[in-house]
């Protein structure tokens, strides 16, 4: 990103060449930074790029994970998680800032002290680690602005206890060192057990406490020791529920470190903090057991308890006839849990969703009680992506061609790419577009050949689904449909079917059994279909191992179809839909998340939309009237596919291997909701959308026109637009003035 934004690629390439090196080879050798997971992690990187390019100062804060999420290996079709040791050779772009180190405390107890009539709270008997920041410059595009990515490493305060070692207490001798090391080892440790939950909470508080201590001190040092106007210069944007303990930690710093009273600290906190919700599903909103939270963060728990007490009193006053119900829905502490989204909403001045549909569902469903109480806090900020990374860098041939037609203004103002629409009907432009697409497909085909040992035809439709693997995203529906089409080809070898390459890229959380079993199914289906010579290569199925930014930049430019098939009402926004649209892929999807806005921008005739609406899904969930068994009984094609999950067709060595997927769709174990994400309900409509896409692809002129128009209408989905909305409507942030 920095090389692109310095606008000095040619000069840097030449200088590296003089050293006998190749810039492309160096880029390929550089490991992906293992600091985030999925679209949300990449979104943060896009936001930092846009903040710097637009001239706003910002600091993105996180943890300097040694091993990141994990490196995905596919062995015998199964996902295997192995450490992603991305720092093993060092990181030349970061700067260690030991002078900004902060102490972060865990555990112990809190003593109350009367200090000349004022109560002071002192944490005793705690363990602590030292947080050390590593800063990486984030360069704006051609504007001399540099922002900061700050990630925190952990170091033990007492690295080695020789006294304990001499007593034979070897584990205790290195206890502090181990605790520090564990904090920064792995992103999203498996939290299916108590120790995993504790580590996640420890990680979150670690980087939040260090970041807030630093930000407040920096402000105070610049303002003669006065912290009272902090909100005029500092904004903390809480990106989902993971950093929402910010509210309580800022209160602690203001009261315990700077001596403010409760009301002063609360006023500053509410003016400084804002919360972005990234999930519709209530069960995904982070909650912590009170016993764990209070044990690990005793002072923070005291503050949260007091915030909750005051808020519940507010609810009782506001809703005297319905207080118990409101408290059950809105309290921060309830049912033995600390509800972090509720803390963020109560303790901040703004709440936003990340797509129009998502925000409306938050207001009407997930957070409706809070919207009723605080309507002025809610707004929408549709997500975006940076065109500088996902077109200028990822698809240079396409970017160069676009610039030759309309100029380079789109690089910093993506709305200007709408000028490309004027060329959509031009036959020469259509031919050139398809030529560029073929070149990108050739590049991806070579990658697949090298890594998957599968040969794919660039004449085929490249049907791409790349995103985190979760049941609501419905990768399972995609692979079941591939099985369905394969059955048709086997029954009717001469049927008219345009060759298809179905491309998946996804990681499943280490403890997510259903998602991991879906990966196994995709790979087993691929093994059968790719080796069946009787279908003459009409279908190929490819699972890209270890999906990440570097191979996404190869996959996305080559895509013809963008699979965005989540259950309507479940996807907050999505960003792969935007990246694929930017690169001239047509959306095949549901009216969910940002798909709704994509269709509005490009027009429904240039996308393939199917399935239930969000209102229809929500109604079925409320009514509990859906029975997938009726579809199973009435549709022989679907029944055949589902039976292949349990008759050994794709797992002859273990016919029962995929039974959990079969049972989940039909609820044969009667322990859960059948087909929770309505795969069978939407299946016929999905098949129809696929057929429509294939028919349109046969008309290359229509397809090229549609693809060019998709790119031309992507302007709204730049992260530059998103950041401008945050800056003006939530942060009240002024741009940096660069002296000439």
Task: Offer a few descriptive terms.
22 strands; 740 residues; alpha/beta; Rossmann fold
Write up what this structure looks like.
- The protein has 740 residues and is of the alpha/beta class.
- Among the domains are: 193-381, Rossmann fold; 457-606 and 637-723, Glycogen Phosphorylase B (Rossmann fold).
- Helices cover 47% and strands 15% of the residues.
- The protein has 32 helices and 22 strands.
- Strands 19-18-17-20-21-22 form a 6-stranded parallel sheet, sandwiched between helices. Strands 1, 4, 5, 8 and 9 form a 5-stranded mixed sheet that branches.
- It starts with a helix and ends in a 9-residue tail after the last helix.
- The mean pLDDT is 94.
């Amino acid at each position: 990103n920095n090389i692109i934004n310095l606008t000095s690629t040619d000069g840097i390439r030449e200088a590296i060449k003089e050293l006998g090196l190749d810039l492309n080879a160096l880029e390929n050798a550089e490991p992906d930074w293992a600091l985030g997971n999925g679209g949300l992690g990449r979104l943060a990187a896009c936001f930092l790029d846009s903040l710097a390019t637009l001239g706003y100062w910002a600091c993105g804060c996180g943890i300097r994970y040694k091993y990141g999420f994990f490196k995905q290996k596919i062995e015998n079709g199964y996902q295997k998680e192995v450490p992603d040791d991305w720092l093993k050779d060092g990181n030349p772009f970061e700067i260690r800032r030991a002078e900004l180190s902060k102490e972060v405390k865990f555990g112990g107890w809190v003593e109350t002290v009367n200090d000349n009539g004022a109560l002071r709270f002192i944490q005793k008997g705690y363990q602590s680690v030292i947080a050390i920041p590593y800063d990486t410059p984030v360069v704006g595009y051609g504007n001399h602005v540099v922002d900061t990515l700050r990630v925190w490493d952990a170091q033990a305060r007492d690295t080695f206890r020789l006294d304990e070692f001499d007593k034979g207490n070897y584990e205790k001798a290195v206890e502090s060192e181990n605790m520090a090391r564990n904090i920064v080892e792995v992103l999203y440790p498996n939290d299916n057990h108590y120790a995993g939950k504790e580590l996640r909470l420890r990680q979150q508080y670690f980087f939040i406490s260090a970041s807030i201590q630093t930000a407040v001190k920096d402000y105070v040092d610049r303002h003669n020791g006065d912290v009272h106007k902090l909100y005029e210069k500092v904004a903390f944007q809480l990106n989902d529920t993971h950093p929402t303990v910010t509210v309580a930690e800022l209160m602690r710093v203001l009261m315990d470190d700077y001596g403010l009273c409760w009301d002063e600290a609360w006023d500053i906190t509410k003016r400084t903090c804002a919360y972005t919700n990234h999930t519709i599903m209530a069960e995904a909103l982070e909650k912590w057991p009170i016993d764990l939270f209070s044990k690990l963060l005793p002072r923070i728990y005291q503050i949260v308890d007091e915030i909750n007490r005051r808020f519940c009193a507010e609810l009782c006053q506001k809703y005297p006839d319905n207080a118990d119900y409101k408290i059950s829905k809105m309290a921060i502490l309830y049912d033995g849990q600390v509800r972090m989204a509720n803390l963020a909403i109560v303790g901040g001045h703004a709440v936003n969703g990340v797509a129009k549909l998502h925000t409306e569902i938050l207001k009407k469903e997930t957070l409706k009680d809070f919207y009723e109480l605080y309507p002025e806090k809610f707004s929408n900020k549709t997500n975006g992506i940076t065109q500088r990374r996902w077109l200028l860098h990822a698809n240079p041939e396409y970017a160069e061609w676009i610039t030759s037609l309309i100029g380079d203004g789109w690089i910093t103002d993506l709305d200007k790419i709408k000028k490309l629409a004027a060329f959509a009907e031009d036959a020469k432009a259509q031919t050139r577009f398809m030529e560029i697409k073929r070149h990108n497909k050739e590049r991806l085909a070579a990658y697949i050949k090298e890594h998957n040992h599968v040969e794919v035809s660039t004449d085929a439709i490249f049907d791409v689904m790349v995103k985190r693997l979760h049941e609501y995203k419905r990768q399972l529906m995609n692979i079941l449909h591939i099985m369905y089409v394969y059955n048709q080809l086997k029954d009717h070898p001469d049927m008219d079917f345009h060759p298809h390459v179905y491309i998946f890229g996804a990681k499943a959380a280490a403890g997510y059994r259903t998602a991991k079993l879906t990966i196994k199914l995709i790979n087993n289906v691929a093994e059968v279909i790719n080796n069946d010579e009787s279908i003459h290569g009409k279908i190929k199925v490819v699972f890209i191992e270890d999906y990440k930014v570097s191979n996404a930049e190869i996959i996305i430019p080559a895509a013809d179809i963008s699979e965005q098939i989540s259950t309507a009402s479940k996807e907050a926004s999505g960003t792969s839909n935007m990246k694929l649209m930017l690169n001239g892929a047509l959306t095949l999807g549901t009216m969910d998340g940002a798909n709704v806005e994509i269709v509005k921008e490009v027009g429904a005739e240039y996308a393939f939309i199917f399935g239930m609406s969000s209102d229809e899904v929500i109604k079925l969930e409320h009514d509990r009237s859906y029975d997938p068994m009726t579809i199973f009984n009435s549709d022989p094609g679907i029944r055949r596919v589902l039976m292949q999950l349990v008759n050994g067709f794709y797992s002859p060595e273990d016919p029962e291997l995929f039974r959990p997927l079969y049972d989940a769709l039909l609820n044969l174990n009667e322990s859960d909701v059948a087909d929770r994400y309505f795969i069978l309900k939407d299946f016929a409509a999905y098949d129809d959308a696929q057929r429509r896409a294939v028919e349109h692809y046969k008309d290359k002129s229509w397809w090229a026109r549609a693809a060019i128009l998709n790119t031309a209408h992507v302007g709204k989905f730049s992260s530059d637009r998103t950041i401008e909305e945050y800056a003006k409507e939530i942060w009240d942030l002024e741009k940096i003035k660069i002296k000439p």
